[in-house]
Design a protein that fits this description.
- The structure is a homodimer of 227-residue chains.
- With 227 residues, chain A is mostly helical.
- Chain A folds into two domains: 1-57, Homeodomain-like (Arc Repressor Mutant, subunit A); 68-226, Tetracycline Repressor, domain 2.
- The first copy, chain A, is built from ten helices and no strands.
- Chain A has helices at 3-6, 9-31, 38-45, 50-56, 59-89, 96-113, 115-128, 135-158, 164-182, 201-226.
- In chain A, helix 5 runs parallel beside helix 8 (135-158) and helix 6 (96-113) runs antiparallel to helix 10 (201-226).
- The radius of gyration of chain A is 21 Å and the shape is elongated.
- Chains A and B meet through helix 7, helix 8, helix 9 and helix 10 of A and helix 7, helix 8, helix 9 and helix 10 of B.
- Chain A binds a DNA duplex (18 and 18 nucleotides) through residues 9-10, 12-13, 16, 37-39, 47-55, 57-59.
Chain lengths: 227, 227
DNA sequence: GTCTATATCGCGATAGAC
DNA sequence: GTCTATCGCGATATAGAC
């Protein structure tokens, strides 16, 4: 008796769900929500077309399920990363270098684990840049907002010599640069005549931390000199 | 006799083309290429459905026309902006502050002119992040690549004390942050409890220049201290 | 839970009168 | 250059047998 036949219906359903989610994740990342049909997804997943509707009812629920599968883990790791960094410097304050790394490391680590995480990031970034009131945008907002605010506050505390608004601008730029990297828009990389890309996570983390921490440190220094 | 009747057929055609292009620009920016139908476009433009096909043949040509309408002007202004900056410092070299401003100012000025330019930027950024081999991506690559390379070279010259690769990383981040700003992803802005947004072009330019120029200056300083 | 078949719709694109 | 009408296709989603 073949192994497959031993599995319960519930197990088979779970595997089908997973296959559909994996295929959807990959395709939505590549071509966007509207650029992918349910047929594309079930074909790649090697399951019947009707099963996408059976398991996820409508297309909107499917992409929500794709996002939910990863979002909570990412949020959890972000919070822990920040808390660990703050704790490590107690009773002092974390530096800008510490904080940039705490912010960026969780996502970079996940992307290094495999293509699924990279696809997930591409999806949420791509969708945020379109309709900001769609299901997925609202979902990710509700998951990440509070966590990002924790980082903003931590950076403000770490830069008492810089006006809050100027700190916020720096973080706005950091955030923009980072999600651009994560969504793997190779627009810039293509332009450099250098065999090596910009994808090595350790190097990326180091350069990101230097660029933005030095930027913030420079703002403090410029202000100190003026007075 | 009403004014409209005096116009030639060619003039009427030109106006129809413009109305379709305007509507398409706005909608593609909002929902992406696949998220918009030709019917959506002609409805917003208040023209007959068949006219989109008559004037642009297929949907692909239409979005290409939307992009081409603005791309050449932007490229031209970018080149001039860089040349003027270099000329102004001769026989010395432009500073990082100069160069960041030269890079960012043309787009910020255009966006301030009206919603059309902002939509154009959103379209090319959004499409680059999906299929990198579609018509529009190839089009914008061929238009912008050489110009961006000019900036890369100028930055490398302005930072002899920093390894080229580290300069390139900084520009990678600058580019990412900037196109994130331009594509108006308000993901970050929404998080700050501050009545004022991050949209004032003059303030944005100043903060952007400070953040990234200080970042590069800091890299040079750190390197000098180490040796 | 899965499969075949199909209903229903909106899409891009075209034909042909004006 | 514009307008009405329509074709052919592929999309989402469902019905009902297994």
């Amino acid at each position: 008796m073949p192994k497959a036949a031993l599995r319960s219906n519930a197990d088979r359903g779970e595997e089908t769900r997973r296959k559909i989610l994996d295929a959807a994740e990959s395709l939505f990342a590549e071509r966007g929500f509207h650029g992918v049909s349910l047929r594309d997804i079930t074909t790649l997943a090697k399951v019947e077309n009707a099963l996408a509707s059976y398991h996820f009812k409508v297309k909107d629920h499917l992409i929500s399920a794709v996002v939910l599968r990863r979002a909570e883990e990412h949020r959890f790791d972000l919070v822990n990363s920040l808390e660990a960094t703050i704790l490590a410097r107690k009773p002092g304050l974390p530096t800008n270098l510490d904080l940039v790394k705490a912010y960026a490391r969780p996502a970079l680590e996940k992307i290094a684990r495999g293509p699924g995480w990279a696809a997930y990031i591409k999806i949420i970034v791509g969708i945020q840049n379109l309709d900001r009131n769609n299901t997925v945008s609202l979902l990710t907002n509700s998951i990440y907002d509070d966590t990002i605010r924790l980082f903003v506050t931590a950076f403000e505390r770490a830069n008492p010599g810089v006006p809050k608004r100027s700190v916020q601008f720096s973080l706005y730029f950091l955030h923009g640069a980072f999600i651009h990297i994560l969504s793997q828009g190779r627009t810039f990389e293509r332009l450099i005549d250098d065999a090596k890309g910009f994808q090595d996570p350790a190097e990326l983390l180091e350069e990101l931390a230097n660029s933005f921490a030095f930027g913030l440190d420079g703002k403090a220094r410029a202000r100190a000199q003026r007075s």
